[in-house]
Design goal:
Layout: H1 7-15, E1 23-25, H2 36-47, H3 55-60, H4 63-73, H5 85-96, E2 101-108, H6 109-116, E3 124-128, H7 137-147, E4 152-155, H8 161-166, E5 169-173, H9 177-186, E6 189-193, H10 199-205, H11 220-224, H12 231-258, H13 260-265, H14 273-276, H15 281-299, H16 304-322, H17 330-350, H18 356-383, H19 399-421, H20 439-455, H21 463-469, H22 471-488
Parallel strand pairs: 1-2, 1-4, 2-3, 4-5, 5-6
Helix pairs in contact: 2-4, 12-15, 12-16, 12-17, 16-17, 17-18, 18-19, 18-20, 19-20, 20-22
């Protein structure tokens, strides 16, 4: 059973003189709800991707050397790092009672100093020095050297078990049940700061299942070719949907890991699982590999050409997360291509003949949506009186140009639809193609309304997510279905 010391207990300890025993505290996953090495590594990959090739070479010279080399090349805003507030409050109480506090971490010494200096709590900082990695036995030896054999220790991981075995009192934080069980068997555990009860739910949220709605685009070729009710076609489209879904989740998690600092500066994104520290970076890495494995396993049941498109999607999203999203205009072109690639993958998964009409229509429509997303960001920054969008190639003065190009792209998709209705291709699928002109006002209504909402500053989410949640979408979709039925079937089918 967990023993929690209250204020009266600590007061009694203080009266007995036991507060003179140093309290040693770990940093990664303990005082901080993050891991400095992993966070710095992702920061380096984002800033200078090609340096990631050198990390294995640095690691060959030891983890301490790797940490020092990464630290020398990245700067992290330590004021944004998520802290364990409950532990921090307790440490402040201990410090107020005259307790000597010592930080002992496997992170680089200089980086650790930057993190804890603003707190003004610690009398000593012990960390890796570029040669010796202060973890496990190495950390224990250094603690004994500085504090003596009588000390209390706060930690969170299996590497701390050896230290808990040798310290006077063990304090556990954010540990698994297995580690807590082992720690109680080898040491005197006096307090446990339990992990969040929502860890599993937060990990699932990081996969953003609600974004899977975008992958419904994989069904578009089957719908437009009137083969959606073919069992084999529908089955392959469903498998492609699941495969792309897991690939998309991996991409979103990777993007979150690369954007930790930027998300923490954002008013709403700072609450995301990884930015807030509710889900560890290590768990995020495991989730990325798990999602990619699931995507590949499902994709193996589909044609090889689909797997090629899926691989292209993963590569393109990774490049977007690394640097393409920082390039002016290139970012929205990439987003439009990623949306359109889903439609193309639907063709490849089902074997439906590829349509240049559908490709052209989809690209211009999604280009308009991508520009609306960027325009919404610019409007938000304009309202916040900021001239530059951090991590992007845009300034708020670009808003007018972005809106003009975005609206023109949307209307170009309407032009493509008009040309298709007048083409010979339409005769192959529709008995009364003249009724397809009814799609034009519906499409123009959707595009124009979206941009009016965007320009008002009311588009606060992804445009496709907004489309799904907007009630008017379903009215427009219902009318579009009626138009398609009228164009597809002879009225005699309905007894008219």
């Amino acid at each position: 059973m967990t023993q929690n010391w209250n204020a009266e207990d600590w007061s009694k300890r203080s009266e007995s003189g036991l507060e003179t025993v140093p309290l040693v505290v770990d940093l990664d996953g303990t005082l901080l709800r993050t891991d400095l090495l992993l966070e710095s590594a992702f920061r380096l990959i984002k800033q200078t991707p090609w340096l990631a090739l050198f990390m294995p070479l640095w690691l060959l010279r030891g983890r301490a050397y790797l940490k020092r080399r990464i630290f020398q090349r990245v700067q992290i805003d330590v004021t944004l790092l998520p802290q364990h507030e409950e532990l921090l409050g307790w440490l402040r109480d201990e410090k107020a009672r005259g307790r000597r506090l010592v930080l002992a971490t496997a992170s680089d010494y200089h980086q650790a100093c930057l993190v804890v200096e603003p707190l003004g709590l610690f009398d000593n900082v012990l960390g890796s020095d570029g040669r010796r990695n202060l973890k496990g036995r190495n950390k224990l030896e250094k603690i004994v050297e500085v504090c003596g054999k009588d000390f209390d220790y706060v930690g969170n991981s299996s590497s701390d078990l050896e230290i808990w075995r040798s310290c006077r009192h063990a304090i556990l934080i954010n540990t698994s049940r297995r580690i807590e069980r082992v720690a109680r068997g080898i040491g005197n555990v006096v307090r446990v700061f339990p992990p969040s009860l929502t860890r599993f739910r937060d990990a699932l949220r990081s996969m953003r299942f609600y974004q899977w709605v975008k992958n419904l685009l994989l069904f578009v070729p089957a719908i437009t070719s009137h083969t959606i009710f073919d069992g084999a076609v529908a089955g392959n489209a469903a498998l492609a949907f699941l495969s792309f879904g897991f690939a998309a989740s991996a991409a979103y998690i990777l993007n979150d890991l690369l954007d930790l600092e930027e998300d923490r500066r954002h008013t709403s994104k700072k609450q995301r699982s990884f930015a807030s520290g509710r889900t560890s970076i290590g768990s995020g890495i495991l989730l990325v590999f798990a999602c990619l494995s699931a995507s590949a396993a499902i994709g193996a049941f589909l044609p090889y050409v689909f797997v090629t498109a899926l691989t292209g999607y993963v590569v393109l999203t990774s490049l977007y997360s690394l640097f393409l999203k920082r390039l002016l205009v290139v970012d929205v072109l990439t987003l439009a291509l990623l949306y359109t690639l889903r439609v193309v993958a639907g063709n490849l998964a089902t074997g439906i003949v590829f349509s240049l009409w559908l490709f052209s229509f989809a690209f211009f429509l999604f280009l308009s949506l991508a520009f609306s997303k960027r325009a919404a960001d610019l409007i938000q920054h304009q309202q916040d009186s900021r001239a530059v969008v951090p991590g992007r190639g845009y300034m708020t003065t670009d808003l007018e140009a972005v809106c003009i190009v975005g609206m023109c792209s949307g209307y170009l998709s309407s032009l493509v639809l008009a040309l298709y209705i007048n083409s010979d291709s339409v005769q192959l699928l529709y008995r009364r193609p003249v009724f397809l002109w009814g799609l034009q006002p519906i499409l123009l209504y959707y595009i124009t309304r979206l941009w009016v909402i965007c320009r008002r500053g009311e588009l606060t989410e992804d445009p496709i997510q907004y489309t799904v949640r907007e009630p008017s979408t379903y009215g427009a979709a219902f009318l579009a279905v009626l138009v398609l039925l009228a164009a597809t079937f002879d009225f005699k089918v309905f007894g008219l």
